[in-house]
Amino acid sequence: MNALSKQISSAQTKNQLFEMVYDDTNRCIQCGYCLPACPTYESMGKESASPRGRIHLVKMAAEGKIDLEHLAEPIDLCLGCRACEVACPVNVPYGHILESAKTVIESDQKDGSMGGKIKKFVLKKLFPYPNRMRMIGNAYWLYQKTGLQAIVQKTKIMDKISEPMAQLEKVLPHVQSPTKRYKWGEVIPAKGEKKATVAFFAGCITDAMLHKINRLTVELLTVVGCEVVIPKMQNCCGALHAHQGFTEDAKQLAKKNIIAFEQSNADYYINNAGGCGAMLREYDHLFANDPEWYERAVHFVSRTRDIHEILVQYGPLPFKKEWNGIITYQDSCHLRNVQGVYEEPRQLIQSIPGVHYVELPTADRCCASGGIYNLLHFNESMKILDSKMKDVLRTRAKTVVTANPGCLLQMRLGIEREGKSNEIQGLHLVEVLAEACGIQ
């Protein structure tokens, strides 16, 4: 591309950014209420790492006062936790501004690095295909089952390839046999009186690598009276794609999910991952300018629920065991800040017989998993995580609970980095509730 073509392309993308978010950036009054809520501002200590700083940079880029290349790094270093939206007194739609900026940056500046090519391959060739993801999960089960994992960890081969991948690989839970996964299209009857029919969203990473959590989710739903449908044609929610600027890919994935779940005729669409649920609940925003799909997206959103909302609605759960030891809970940012689900997880924990629940003082602060943020920006992520772990240790908890697979792995990594793996366990709330109900 010659210099003139680059100038024309840059002008077009700036015009696109102007049309998408300029009015929204003008809603920010630069009051600074977002600053104490922002984990990257706290850890990096500079204005460009704050929500209002990023909004100002987006505004300047839309006005043509700075090049998009000067916007790329500050935007990429944002965790996207959206705690700033909760703190904002004038309701600036920061999430929309952030993802619009990422979309424009991605279209203007193609990442030709090896890391960029790997990211594009994973997002375009793996996550959109559930069967491929399951094949990876099956391979990882064999990797653990055959003892190869122990050899790799002992020789530290993975550390030489990628430190972030090596760290996360250490804390992946034991993967259950692939034969224990539910089949696409399966219908699992309610136990006892049927109160509702729900369609279950299985997710990508959870379905592939953490499918025990999905199985326990389904069993908990059945014991509170829900018939559970596993829509056959469901796929990735599109959250990682939207967060990385691949908006059109996210829309295509969303369309497939809308169709799949419409065909289930379920009363509710249930998920157990805070990040996925937030994306599912914002499908209407994704199609705001698409009359053909907007109404269908609104209908989809109206039926979408987090697992903990449904367990509270149709509970109580049939607990059979008491819980020993202190439990603390780390909020999933997207479950709390986007979906507004805050009380239900705490209510469920505190309903367990014998439980000693201690509130984590910084539960509302991001753990810095951020989808794949901890892989792309490992050092920044670990700085925030290590700070959070100081608060976790002060609770003296023996169990750290969360409600999102990325957060779960991140908190398990924090426990590992503190050398407390023999003393503290990291679990999804579904695992805790299932164990207390005697479900294995």
TrEMBL record:
Residues 18-49, 68-98 form the 4Fe-4S ferredoxin-type domain. InterPro entries: 4Fe4S_Fe-S-bd, 4Fe4S_Fe_S_CS, Cys_rich_dom, Glc_ox_4Fe-4S, Helical_ferredxn. Its EC number is 1.1.99.14. Pfam families: CCG, Fer4_8. Component of a complex that catalyzes the oxidation of glycolate to glyoxylate. This is Glycolate oxidase iron-sulfur subunit. Keywords: 4Fe-4S, Electron transport, Iron, Iron-sulfur, Metal-binding, Repeat, Transport. Its cofactor is [4Fe-4S] cluster. It comes from Calidifontibacillus erzurumensis. GO terms for molecular function: 4 iron, 4 sulfur cluster binding; glycolate dehydrogenase activity; metal ion binding. It catalyses: glycolate + A = glyoxylate + AH2; (R)-lactate + A = pyruvate + AH2. Binds 2 [4Fe-4S] clusters.
